[in-house]
Amino acid sequence: MSGTPGRVLLLDIDGTLVNYATELPASAADAVRAARDRGHRVYLCTGRSRAEIYDQLWDLGVDGLIGGNGSYIEDAGQVVFHQVLDAAVVAEAVGWLLAEDLGFYLECNSGLYASDHLPEKAAAILDGGVTPENVRFIREAMPQLIYGTRAGRDDVNKISFVLEPAVDLDALAAHYAGRAAIDTWSMTGKRAEFGEFGQLGIHKGAAVERLATHLGVGAESLIGFGDARSDLGMFAACGTSVAMGNAPDEVKASATLVTDHVDADGLANAFRRLALID
């Protein structure tokens, strides 16, 4: 692999840059800073919306962000692309979520707008269930949640909600066919724990291609790092792709390189194996 400066590094956050307890390994932080010192550009490429990119991540000195699974692209403070979920879909989805008493939050660049009981609902997915410790973990992991949401908005990138056994995802997908993409994601890396209302045609791969066009670089200059199924589009758009050691087998099988677990210096070790840093 070439160590020539000028590569564009695209980093998923949860399970890749930070672990599932939202902790940023010191080795990962050092590796990002060292890569930028070598002349590489680093972009976060995440399901999180901009409001959920906390200071410790910006403090790494990253060049920009692909957020909301590709609904938002920012480069050096410039908005390259932003598309939001249809407001009518948001209003209908919020009505359904409230009627079903599901914990949810609207993911916007301006904030994360949540139902009042989201921490308790989300705590149920953690080992041990709804305990004071698990509720506190959810609140601390998502410190910018704005509670009391009971209506839609017109600036929503996507909607996440806690999966419960009664939720029929196939029926939900059929109901919203042609209007929204229904998917799932994991907070713990163990199973599908959240459902998601996303935008049709919006995914990390398409966003990576948009960013590459904006930067004037080809796929051979792009290296994507991820741990989840939502990263497969990013992998396909990049000349080189890296799966974390904690990724499921289907993600590992699609990657150019498999590195170590996020908690075993996986990101830093991948940077070294790719000669991005010393």
What does this protein structure show overall?
The chain has 278 residues and is of the alpha/beta class. The chain has two domains: 8-82 and 202-273, Rossmann fold; 87-198, Hypothetical Protein, Haloacid Dehalogenase-like Hydrolase, Chain: A, domain 2. 30% of the residues lie in helices and 22% in strands. The protein is built from ten helices and 14 strands. The strands form two sheets. It has an eight-stranded mixed sheet with strand order 5-4-3-2-1-12-13-14. Strands 8-7-6-9-11-10 form a six-stranded mixed sheet. The chain is globular and about 55 Å long.
- Under the CATH scheme, the architecture of the largest domain is 3-Layer(aba) Sandwich
Q: Could you give me the name of the CATH homologous superfamily of the largest domain? A: HAD superfamily/HAD-like
Number of helices: 10
Mean pLDDT: 96
Contiguous low-pLDDT stretches (5 residues minimum) are none
- What is the helix content? 25-40%
Shape: globular
Strand content: 15-25%
List the helices and strands in order.
Answer: EHEHEEEHEEHHEEHEEHEHEHEH
The biggest beta sheet is recorded as: 8 strands, mixed
The structural class is: alpha/beta
Span between termini: 13 Å
Name of the CATH first level of the largest domain: Alpha Beta
